[in-house]
Design goal:
about 210 residues; Aminopeptidase; binds coenzyme A; seven-stranded mixed β-sheet; about 25% helix; about 25% strand; globular; alpha+beta
Length: about 210
């Protein structure tokens, strides 16, 4: 059974805190017996070692099948574990959308934008990836919105997304979340025997007039 199959056909809840699912509410004793069960939503949780294999599997499916990631070779579990450890050491969030059975439906993370120079310290760059069966249900937006909240909490001023120009769902998702196109870089990428064009999208996260204010 697909981890999503229990979620099909349910409406989005109104006013539920991020990541709350029916089971949580029941355990907390918050649902009166006569009240219909609230819709089941995948929880959004910080990534842990238990998520590594799921993140690796869905990432490698995207590498093999699309130009969403400009990489040709699959990653190893060791590389994904090193990536997660480095993100955690640096305080960069890695969030997982978890199905009710604990499996990984998607993940999202941000790191420093052009981290080699300290003048970029107020800017982050994120990525978001979902399993094919989890797409088209608003989960990508929930993950990115959670990242934007964390970026603001960390005092970041700008969030960047680098998106292949052929990736219509990602371009639309980011436009809907308030990102605007700030650059288009023709033929900077190569995959599947063709040049790839990268679109840079940006969202400013606060209105500070100066960097240290
Ligand atoms: C990109 C991705 C994260 C989007 O997440 P999602 O939860 O599926 O996004 P949504 O369902 O909200 O769809 C986003 C928008 O794209 C639109 N869309 C979906 N498929 C589309 C298509 N083939 N062509 C045009 N628009 C499409 C949706 O209608 C929606 O637009 P709307 O907000 O105006 O209604 C997800 O599809 C994914 O993981 N893709 C593979 C990996 C990837 O591309 N990652 C991003 C790298 S930059």
């Amino acid at each position: 059974m697909s981890p999503l199959s229990t979620l099909e056909g349910v409406a989005a809840p109104a006013g539920l805190p991020e990541g709350l699912i029916a089971g949580h509410l029941l355990r907390e004793g918050l649902v009166p017996i006569a009240t219909p069960l609230p819709p089941l939503l995948p929880a959004i949780v910080p990534a842990g070692p238990q998520h590594l294999a799921g993140m690796l599997e869905l990432f490698n499916e995207i590498v093999a099948s699309s130009t969403a990631v400009y990489a040709d070779l699959p990653e190893t579990l060791e590389q994904r574990a090193t990536w997660l450890a480095q993100r955690q050491e640096r305080g960069h969030p890695v969030l997982v959308a978890e199905a009710l059975d604990g499996s990984v439906l998607g993940f999202a993370s941000f790191g420093d934008f052009r981290g080699c120079f300290p003048g970029f310290r107020h800017t982050a760059e994120h990525s978001v990836h979902l399993r094919p069966a989890a797409r088209g249900q608003g989960l990508g937006g929930r993950l990115v919105e959670a990242l934007l909240r964390e970026a603001r909490a960390q005092g970041r001023h700008a969030m960047m997304a680098s998106i292949d120009s052929g990736n219509a769902p990602s371009l639309r998702l980011h436009a809907r979340l308030g990102f605007r196109e700030v650059g288009r870089l023709p033929q900077v990428g190569a995959k599947f025997g063709q040049w790839l064009e990268l679109v840079l999208m940006q969202k400013l996260l606060d209105e500070r007039p100066t960097p240290e204010s």
